[in-house]
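ok trying again, last paste got cut off:
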Amino acid sequence: MTSSAYGRADPDEQADELDTLGQFLDYHRATLQMKCDGLTAEQLATPAVAPANLTLLGLVRHLSEVERHWCAAVLDGQTVEPLYCSEEDPDGDLERLDSAPVEQVWSRYRADVAESRRILATFSDGAEPARRAAGSRPCLRWVLTHLIEEYARHNGHADLLRQALDGGTGE
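nice, full thing came through this time. structure:
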């Protein structure tokens, strides 16, 4: 396994199913952090690919909401309130960037990822259903695959945003 300064490691090619999915998810989590590393708060909040108003900070906030929803609420059955969104403002995670300082956003994101890892460690089989009491109850395998898809899609956005901000390119 190759690691980097961002804690990003190539997934083990011989790992079992849950370890493989977890490692790919962690790879994408680290990629998001890598794409944001070294930028100022102003740069993180700058929409850099017209005409979209998407920002790196908005992506971090959105993925914090994603972690909370899929891991804490769906998989673990916890009651969680949205951090940045509401029924009146469903895109608040992406658009109301002044509602929390950048350091607080990163701290919250790291806490949400840590809680997701804790929850994921309580499952032993990819076929285990979510513990949510009401609504759909997808299996752990489905949720992990969805999280990987969500991060991969948004990391593509992050690539474009970073390059437009300062010319940074990379994996």
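cool. The chain has a mean pLDDT of 93. The two ends are 16 Å apart (CA to CA).
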